[in-house]
Amino acid sequence: MEIDEVKLDSILEKYGRDKSLLLGMFQDIQREYRYLPKEAIKYLCERLNIPVIKGYEMATFYKALSLVPRGRHTIHVCMGTACHLKGAPGILEAFERELKIKRGGTTDDMLFTLESVNCLGACALAPLVRIDEKDYGKVNQTGVKKIIEEYKSGE
Ligand code: FES
Question: Global pTM?
């Protein structure tokens, strides 16, 4: 993919070209592109005199960083104990069915990435789904369809 070198240079400057701040630079890039393009890893590592392999190690170590393009919205289905007991597996399946993707996947229109997580810390609302920063509590399978529609119509 084409990367915007001017943008990457400005990120380098923002962090004072300090190689110990590479993680922060990666996070900025991820915010910009919604993932970390391998060309960007290479570009930064070369400018900072870090072996590119080290950049990859960091990028794969931190779960918050993604090497593959992600959807505009990330759906987290909580699979912690409380949510599990209240039917989270069925909720996850409903999202998979409606979006025609599997857990970890991204829809072809790049609108959604679907993930599962362990306890989002609001067990009283089980089963809980978090989309970006917004929580949906006591979700049922019919609700899944509605939630997806809500996001689609907001585009
Ligand atoms: S188990 Fe789902 S929020 Fe705690």
Answer: 0.80
